[in-house]
Design goal:
Layout lengths: L10 H9 L17 H6 L17 H8 L5 H22 L11
């Protein structure tokens, strides 16, 4: 299933579809593969990531650049910022003890 085939609906619409018999469950559907002891022995609980809602003022040309690429432009902007943070964290880890150099601006 790809994102193009997804349909977003409200809980009320989902309930209406269920009541109308438009949602069907196949009790004969095959089960997925069993996850063995090895899988669970190495499983790690990963808590959900929290996010913070902020108001961000951007230059118009920066925003328009990402928006022209279509749906998901906010996520792409976040991905660029994450890559920037990761690169700087890796650089700082490689130069432990040195103060990071900052540009004016």
């Amino acid at each position: 299933m790809t994102e193009e085939t997804w349909k977003r609906i409200s809980l009320d619409e989902l309930r209406r579809m269920k009541d109308a018999g438009e949602i069907q469950h196949n009790p004969n559907a095959p089960e997925g593969p069993e996850l063995g002891e090895d899988f669970w022995a190495n499983a790690v609980l990963v808590p959900p990531r929290s996010s913070k809602s902020v108001h961000l003022k951007l230059d118009a040309e920066v925003f328009e650049f990402f928006k022209r690429q279509g749906k998901g432009h906010i996520t792409r902007m976040q991905d660029v910022l994450k890559a920037y943070v990761k690169a700087h964290e890796e650089k700082a880890a490689g130069t432990a003890g040195e103060k990071p150099k900052r540009r004016a601006g």
